[in-house]
Amino acid sequence: MQISKDQFLTLKEAAKFVGKSVHNVSYLITYGKINKYNSAGKVVKKGIKGLVFVSKNELEQYTKSWQKQLAQRRKSLNIKDQTLAFSQLSERERTKHIHRLHPYMGKFIPQLVEYYLKKNFTKKDIILDPFMGSGTTLAVSSELGLRSVGIEISPFNCMISNAKLQDYDIVKVSKEIEEIYNQTKKFSDAWTDSTSIGDSSISKSKYLNKWFAKRTLAELAFYKKKISDYQHQDILKIILTRAARSSRLVHHYDIATPTKPVTKPYKCRKHFTATPGSKKIHRMCHPLDRAIGKIKLYTFDTTKRIETFSKLRKSSDYLVLQGDSRFINLTKEVGARWKNVSINGIFTSPPYLGQIDYHGQHQYAYELLSIPTEVENEIGRKKLGKGKQAKEEYQKGISAVFANVSKSLHKDAKIFIVANDKANLYEKIIKDAGMKQISFKERPVEARAQGDKTPYSEKIFECALEN
Ligand SMILES: C[S@@+](CC[C@H](N)C(=O)[O-])C[C@H]1O[C@@H](n2cnc3c(N)ncnc32)[C@H](O)[C@@H]1O
Asked: Ligand 1: which of 129, 157, 322, 358 to mutate, most ligand atoms within 8 Å of CB?
């Protein structure tokens, strides 16, 4: 029997039908949201030889119920204007090209930055992000042909940003990325129980020995040692640390904020198979005993991402400054880079008060590369909580940043601050920094920090200098 085209769709047709990717449709099958059919129109539980089909009716039902849930969540936030929700974007679009070069908890989506920069600035303008994080504002500026400056306290975040923004000779960098992988693969193939780690800062680190298997550490140490033979060291360090992050002894379902290492096979909450209406069958997952698989994965993924970005970008005129935005002499730094300029605008998202550990989330990288941290200068540190004193310190710190960088701004500069201001701290921050609020918008956020799926709203303050 041949199936009816009105009732069944191939994965490609289904993706087009719902405006998502084939990957998204496959996800619905894997997680039991819809059934998988063969070419005779029969539900199939296991693998299929030949084309896979899905039912148009099931897909429509699922999409409707998902949209209903989304509408309910939005209603709970009570925000009428949905322009800035960007909820139609898939995860893939929100993390397109270099925006997924290394995981970073607490970054904003590039489409939000794009929306504001396109509307408010013109080519060659200089945009500042005094809380640069993983460099989203600078990357979007590059794509739009704008110049940009980022300041960031965490040295590893600066490394991520530099690796994203560098104007690569793609042939040269791809060759290096591939060569170092091939050498590490050879090392891995020859590994035995008696192979030494050969890097005392790694073999003696309590943290690394707790979170990584012995062979994993040896492979990471080998790759690290080889980096000094190459020119593009930042991008290699980003591949190394991304592979390290994914090779830790952690459960697949709590990779963002693991609490203790896993040493035995476990029933995985993330990986399971299911068909609609039946019980989930959880897969037994194993902690990783080596890093080489992840190194290979990110070798190819990274090359693809930087190549895509290199074709899209219209400017390579950016400046990454590592330091404390409260005290940095921005006029001097900018003057050393561009003559007779002032900054035309700010687009930034300050740290969340007492919520995200901006250094700690990359502890594996700090330990592996022996980078000194500057955690004590992080404003709104998670460790200090959200109490009265923490709030006052936060207000002082954030307004000191804006007051300091304002000295380098053009008098008509447009300032956009994206903040989760549940505690209403920003009215005072804006005033104390010598700025005035021009307008503000609210946008619903489905889930910004990894692991936190509670929707909340974010405020976007448009400000100007008071005088
Ligand atoms: C919300 S995140 C910014 C994320 C960024 N928008 C992105 O998309 O990647 C805030 C950043 O401010 C940084 N930060 C905290 N205190 C700082 C300070 N005193 N000077 C400069 N940066 C600081 C944190 O390390 C963190 O990376």
From this structure: 358
Rounded Cα gap, residues 96 and 210, in angstroms: 33
Determine the residue type at 373.
T
Q: Is 62 helix (H, G, I), strand (E, B) or coil?
A: helix
Name the pairing type of β-strands 343-348 and 409-419.
parallel
Q: Which of 278, 285, 222 is nearest to 252 (CA)?
A: 285
Q: Which atom of ligand 1 is nearest to the CA of 108?
A: 8
Give how far Cα 431 sits from Cα of 378, 427, 466, Å. Answer: 22, 6, 9
The whole-angstrom separation of Cα 375 and Cα 380 is 11
Residue with tokens 């990110």: 298
The pLDDT-based confidence of 68 (bands split at 50, 70, 90) is confident
Q: How far apart (Å, rounded) are the C-alpha atoms in residues 246 and 256?
A: 10
What domains can you pick out in the chain, each with its CATH number? 8-76 (no CATH), 79-155+313-465 (3.40.50.150), 170-306 (no CATH)
Spell out the residues 6+ positions from residue 443 whose beta carbon is closer than 8 angstroms to its own: 79, 83, 84, 85, 112, 457, 458, 460
Q: How many helices (H) and strands (E) does the chain have?
A: 17, 11
Whole-number Å distance between alpha carbons of 169 and 161: 17
Check if the beta carbon of residue 373 is closer than 8 Å to that of residue 155: yes
Q: How many alpha carbons fall within 13 Å on the CB side of residue 287?
A: 19
Q: Which residues contact 189 (CB under 8 A, 6 or more apart)?
A: none
Mean pLDDT (whole number) for 371-386: 97
| Separation of CA 372 from chain center | 22
How far does the centroid of ligand 1 lie from the alpha carbon of residue 130, in Å? Answer: 7
Sequence-ordered alpha helix ranges (H) in 150-280: 155-165, 170-189, 200-203, 206-211, 214-227, 233-246
- More confident site: 455 or 335: 335
Q: Angle 222-228-231 (CA atoms, 0-180°, nearest 5)?
A: 130
3-class SS of residue 268: strand
Least Cα distance to 14 among 1, 45, 272, 5 occurs for 5
pLDDT tens readout for residues 417-438: 999 898 999 999 999 999 999 9
pLDDT at residue 66 greater than cutoff 50: yes
Residue 151 C-alpha to ligand 1 middle, in angstroms?
A: 8
- What is the separation, in whole angstroms, between the first and last Cα of the chain? 77
What is the distance in A from the centroid of ligand 1 to the CA of 175?
A: 33
How far does the centroid of ligand 1 lie from the alpha carbon of residue 375, in Å? 11
Task: Name the average pLDDT for the chain.
Answer: 92
- ipTM associated with this complex: 1.00
